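Quick log. Single chain, no ligands specified.
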Amino acid sequence: MISFIHLKTGKRQKMKETFHPYKIFTILLILFFPFSVFSEKKNTKNKIKETIIVTASRIPADLSETGRIVTIITGEEIKNSPATSVQELLKYVTGIDLRRRGISGIQADLSMRGADFEQFQIMIDGVKFNNPQTGHHNLDIPLSLEDIERIEILRGHGSSSFGANAVGGIINIITRKSDTRKIGLKTEYGSFKTKAFGFNLSLPGKTVKSFISFNKGQSDGYKSGTEYDKKNFFGNFFIMKGKSKFSVSSAFSDKKFGAFSFYTKKFPDQWENTSGGFLSGKILYESKKNKLKFAFYHINHKDYFILDRYNPDFYSNKHITVTNGMDFQLSFFHHSGIFVIGGNFESNSIKSNSLGNHNRETISLFFQQRTEPLQNFYIDSAIYLYNYSDWGWKIIPSLIINFLINENTELFFNTGKSFRIPSFTELYYNSPANMGNINLSPEKSIEYETGMKSYCKSFTMQASIFFRKIKDKIDWVRKNREEKWKAQNITGMKNFGVETTISLYLKGVLFKHLKMGFVHIKELNKINKYESKYIWDSMKNQLTFELSGKLFSIIKYKINLRYMKRLSGYSYLVVDSYFSKEINSTTRIFFKINNLTDREYFEAGGIPMPGRWIIIGFEGNL
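-> predicted structure:
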C-alpha cells in the first residue's frame, strides 16, 4: 500500500536577484590572488600527495602536478555532508550541475562545463560504469555514502585516456577498504516519513581484507508520486602478497519509486523500478620498473517504466542491459618519465520491448607518455585508438603541458579530443512523446584549457579558462509542440567558460574551513529552427559557498550554499546544513537540514524539489 504526503499549496513567487554573485567573487579573487602567487616557499604538498589521481590520466600523479582541474571529495567531507546519497553529494562541487527529479539519489542527471548528462564518464575504482541504454541511468550507482573512501572529479576532456563519453569530465568513485576490525551501524529518520538503515562489516588482515555493507531507505515522498523504496548491497575482497594484489568487488541495488513527471508533463503519474549491479576484478603486479594492471567487469541493469501508473497497460517499457569488458595496462618507468600502453574490449547489449534487441562492441588501444624535459616542466601526451562497430577506427589525441613555478604554484595548458557514441535510447526509442534516430553519428569535440593552481598551507586555488567545440552534437529537438521530440545531430555547438575555486584553512574553531567557487559558461549555439529539450536548461552561472567549523567547540557544522542561473534565465539559491555531536570515540548523532530557507525551486524539467527537509540520525561502530 502506497501512501502520499501532498505539498502545501500556494502561489509560486519568482525569485528576485538582489545581488550579483560573480561581482562578489571577482572582488574576493582579486584580494586573495597575490597571496597565492607570491607566498613564501613551504613544503605544503604533504597533505596533497596523500591522494593519487587516477581520473586525470592513465598515469597516476600528485594532485598538484596533473595539469588538469581535479577535485577530491575526501572521506571526512563525505562523512560530514548534508547529502543523503552519493548522487546528492556531487551537487556541492563547483562546476557540477546536478539536476534531480527526486530525493535521496532516486534519479538525477549530471552536467559539467556545459556538457549534458550523456557527456561524462562514471567510473568505480577505475572501471567504466556508464549505462548504454540512456545517460539518465548513469548515476544509478549501487553504492551508499558509507561505501566510499573518496571521489575524484576531473573536469574536461578525458577520451584520450578512458574512451567514449568523457567529453565534459570523469567522476571516479573509490570504494572503501577495510581499515580496522569493526561493525558499523547507521540509522536515519526525517521529513516525509523518510527512514534509512544500514550496517557494514570491516575485516582487515595482513594479506586478506574484506568489507561488506547493506543499506535500505524509504519515504512517502514530499508530494504525491515521489515516494520510494530502495536497498543496496556492496562488498569487496582483497588479497595482497608480495608485489601482487588481487581484488574483487560486487554491488547490487533495487529502487522502486514514483516518477512524477520525470520524462514528460503530459503523463505526470509515472512509475519506475530500476535494479542491477556490477562485478569487477583486478590483478596488479608492480616492480621497480614496470606495473601491470588487468581488470574485468560485468554490469547489468534492469529498468521497468510505466508511463501512467494508474493505467499500466497504456504504455510501459522493460529494458535489460548488459555490459562486459576487459581492460589491461602496462606501465614502464624509465629515466625520462613513464610510458603506458594498454587496451580495452567492451560489449553492450540490450533487450527491450520498445527498443528491440541490439548488440555492439568496442575495441581500443591507448598509449600515454609523461616526461620531464626540464626541471619542474612536464609534458603528457596520449593517443587513444578506438573502434566502434558502427563507426570504424578513430584516433583521439591529447596534450598536457604543466609548469611548476615553485613548490606551491603551477601553470598549465591542455587540449584534447573527445567523442560520444549514441545511447540505445537515442537510436531506437519510440514512445508517445519521443522518437529515436538510427542514423545518428557519434559526437566529436575538441577542448582547450589553460589555468593556474596554487597550494599553500592555509590557502588553495584552482582557476581555468576553457573552450570546447562539438561537432554532430546529439540532442532531442522538435519544430513545434505538436511534434514528438526526435534525436538529431546538431552541428556548430561551442561553449566558453571560466571556473575558479578558492579554499581557506582558518586557525579558529568556530570558522575552520571556507570554500568558494564560481563558474560562468557562455554558450555559442545557433539552433533557432528547433526547440531543444536540454540545451537551454544548461548552467550559465554558478556560485558555491561552504563554511565549516565547530559550535561551542563540540558540535561540528557545515553550511553549503548553491546559487544557479540557467541559460533560460531561471535562477535559484538553496542552503543546506549539517550538525553532528560525538558521544564518544565510536558513536555520534547528526542533524541534516536540506533547503534550510524552504525555497520553492526546480532543477530539471520543471519538477518541484522538496521544501525544508530535516533528517536526524545515529552512527556508531562496534
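The two ends are 36 Å apart (CA to CA).
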